[in-house]
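Handout, page 2. Input:
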Amino acid sequence: MAKKQPETWGALKASGYKPTQVKDEIRNNLIRKITEKETTFPGILGYENTVIPDVERALLSRHNILFLGLRGQAKTRMARQMTDLLDEYIPIVAGSEINDDPFHPISRYAIDLMAEKGDDTPIAWLHRSERYGEKLATPDVSVADLIGDVDPIKAANLRLSFADERVIHYGIIPRSNRGIFVINELPDLQARIQVALFNILQEGDIQIRGFKLRMALDILFVFTANPEDYTNRGSIVTPLKDRIESQIITHYPKDVETSLRITGQEATVLPEQLSKVKVPALISRLIEQIAFEARESEFVDKKSGVSARLTISAFENAVSAAERRLILNHEKETQVRITDLLGVVPSITGKIELVYEGEQEGPLEVAYNLLDKSIRSTFVQYFPNPELFKKRKQAADNNPYRPIIQWFEKGNKLQLFPDIPDQQREQALQKVGGLKDFVKSHAREAKGQDMLLMMEFVLHGLAAYSLISKKYVGTEISFGDLLGTMMDFNLEAGEDPDPDHF
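Output:
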């Protein structure tokens, strides 16, 4: 507080302070921010033209809000940021459990205290950070948790009967009076508990154990829900949903550029890591593309969603994979490689829900599949589309990949291990005929480590387009001739090779 604030009810009245309801308070501060072109929800990326305008309209309308969207779409984060739209401090009756406004006290404690002390009633000042309540809805949440109940211990200590209002123990909602209250995953709340919220939303009052209370609570309610919850785990009862004035649909980033900005903002990578490990733009794009591929994959449950936390965790793991290799090889600095993306597999398998077909494939195979699809989608942004050269009649001199493919057709193989030193990796890649010349002609700006990264990328890209083979054997990645590999597989299975298949 910039100056000393009134400490008694009399001094507060003399100061000319005028109380404001919480929704009006938020509305006024939002108008000021919009007028002064301040960012209303800093750090919320990708919602500038969709979700944020919807939220601003809802708050200007003084509405309670339901955020409806899949996991990892910043629903709770936006709710928590709404505290920045509150006044920095507000006066309350000192000692009040429910932040009583001295101009309009509603609890028995505040009413009795002000009747006894009058203008000498002590005033405390509550910071906006303390005006936020949040509850994760679970099946075991009770009405007592949210609204309150009779406290027999308080009754015994104060020698009061259960008919006395002073024996009430207030729940988290009354304790959030004059602030913002959030219920996450609303459909998980039992229907009978949702019914208990009707009066609070419509009339702004509460009822506890039959007490004839009419406590006009002053709260902005924000709820979050996942669309799948409507069918899989529960539902929002219709009368409650009807009382929530604005339902706002959230979404995942619509493009890789936005996703890159989110990961860059949220990923926790130590400065000492970044001083030793360079993360090329290509690697960052491949990681982001994994999430986009997962959201479209036939193996992944679309109703469950793929959180932005996947790419954040994957980015952190990729950096750590390169750092671990650097430590093992006693090197001073290195660059994240394509093979380091094997280290992000745990970030993928732990962040996706598989449908039946995905379960049959197995989470590890699905993760590899998503990695390959990411490489395939990104490859054409850097190099000619290999699909144009896959047909035999077109596989002639105009195929820029032909020298590389021919090197493998001669029976040559390339084995790459994630932890080999940079020098050994360079020696291995240099052996592939035509590879370096191809990168020089199509990625002329690539030098040094970037050149090696692009050489490695070409091999993974050709494998993703089925022009050469790629096999994972433990931690080893082996590249070879596609035809020879498939013939070996057929012969091992006791089948004749099918030339039409190739």
